[in-house]
Amino acid sequence: MSPSFARIALSNWRQFGDVNIDVHPRLTIITGANGAGKSTILNIFSQHFGFAKPLISTPKRRRGGGLFYDLGYYKRESVTLSGQIFKYDDEIEHLKDFDDEDVVETPPSPTGEFIPIGHLVYTNGIHASIGYQDQQANVYGILVLNQQPVMGVQIGSHRMNAAYQPVQGLSLQALALDQAYALYLNEVNARMSGGHTGSSALYRMKETLIAMAAFGEGNAHLEANRDLKITFDGFEAVLRKVLPRELGFQKLSIRPPEIVLKTRTGEFVVDASSGGISAIFEIAWQIYLFSVGKSHFVVTIDEPENHLHPSMQRTILSNLIDAFPNGQFIVSTHSPFIVSAVEDSFVYALRYIDPISEQSGLPLGSRRTVISERLDQSTRAGSASEILREVLGVDVTLPQWAQGKLDAIVEKFGSTKLTKATLESLRADLAKAGFAEYYPQALAKLVKNSD
After folding, report:
1. CA R_g for the chain
2. What contacts 223, CB < 8 A, 6 or more positions away?
3. Is 60 in a helix, a strand, or coil?
4. 3-state DSSP call for residue 32?
């Protein structure tokens, strides 16, 4: 059986200070703010199955003139790690010492040696070193020494909109699953790289499904292909598990040149599906094509919440795990509904922290670093608002303009003694402004301000 992932660690490279992630056998979720490194970690996993994404180095000025390309490695001094974001405004004079950090002394010539930045552990017990070649280049790639042959599929964060294309003819290439997967993936990669082959990924999917239905059933003059029929029926079974229950999916109906979804809410062609239904349909198709005949495989998904209604975000991962029991899923997300979607999983938050000098207690530089924190069950079981606040660092779900109005109402009672009448007036003012549901937060803020 092909190995999968057990652990990844990164340190002292780019934004990563100290990141350690144990990979769950079924589902690992990585969350955090933009720029924390979720996609970078996901790409290290994905390059095992052919999805290597180049990294771009940072140009810096040499003191003597010219540019030096920084590939991200740094040596960390002895520090203590602050659990809170450092208030730089309070130490502005200290931070002026670091204003010229983008100007560096002439660095030593690149040696071409392997620079280690972390390691991977696979389920077969093998350890691999993660790093890159010491070089001067604006684009470079990650190397994994002792990399193991992990089989998997990568689902990107962007879903490509495609113009309507009716299927004009059937391709015999689409009858071989590996060839059908290659054709579909070629269209996805072409669009992501700015190219276009004349056909969309959705077109390739329709072409294959129609061919499976036609050649799988057979007729008086065409011998039936039992394997194709089983594969077609298998995809219908997957759709029944992954599409929203409210939709009431029943079956696919082939009406050349269209594929029609028959549901309890009506019939519609695949091309006319909503963005969310279409996204789930294509994710399921890509995983399904790859998974047929495999005893184990890995799926990496970057931001599965894109295009999905919150109700779909809550169920997409549990549905995929149910539909593909042989898969190990590794997911990055910003959605609180994804974070709390599956109980039996590992969830890690990537948090920014400040390296603090053990001697002075001041920041060692203007560089914040990222650490990983595994979330416990109580944190993940909270409401969407609680997860946004505790995990993703968003205090409330109110828009900024509404937050200002809420603060003004609370401030109005700031110098008033807290009595029953005061609280009733606070509740009335909140209700009048449309903020009645935020009474607990307003009361907590009022009590805090009065302390």
Report:
1. 27
2. none
3. strand
4. strand
Residue 306, amino acid: N
Provide, rounded to the nearest whole percent, the portion of the chain with pLDDT above 90. Answer: 38
Which one, of 358, 393, 356, lies nearest residue 373 by Cα? 393
3-state secondary structure of 11: strand
Q: Which strand (E) or helix (H) includes residue 217?
A: helix 201-217
Grade residue 98 by pLDDT with cuts at 50, 70 and 90: very low
Which residues, other chains included, contact 286 with Cβ-Cβ below 8 Å and sequence gap of 6+?
153, 155, 181, 184, 185, 188
Read off the pLDDT of residues 414-434 as tens digits, 9 standing for 90 and up. Answer: 878 878 888 888 889 888 888
* 3-state secondary structure at position 14: coil
Most confident of 239-248, 266-275, 337-346, 442-451: 239-248
Longest dimension (CA), the chain: 90
3-class DSSP state of 235: helix
Using CA atoms of 108, 144, 9, 323 in order, give the dihedral in degrees to the nearest 10: 150
Residue carrying structure tokens 């495989």: 297
267 band by pLDDT with thresholds 50, 70 and 90? very high
Burial group, residue 186, by CB count within 10 angstroms (0-12, 13-18, 19+): middle
- DSSP tag of 261: E
Q: For the chain, how many residues are written?
A: 451
Where residue 60 falls among pLDDT bands split at 50, 70, 90? confident
What is the rounded CA–CA span in Å between residue 227 and residue 212? 9
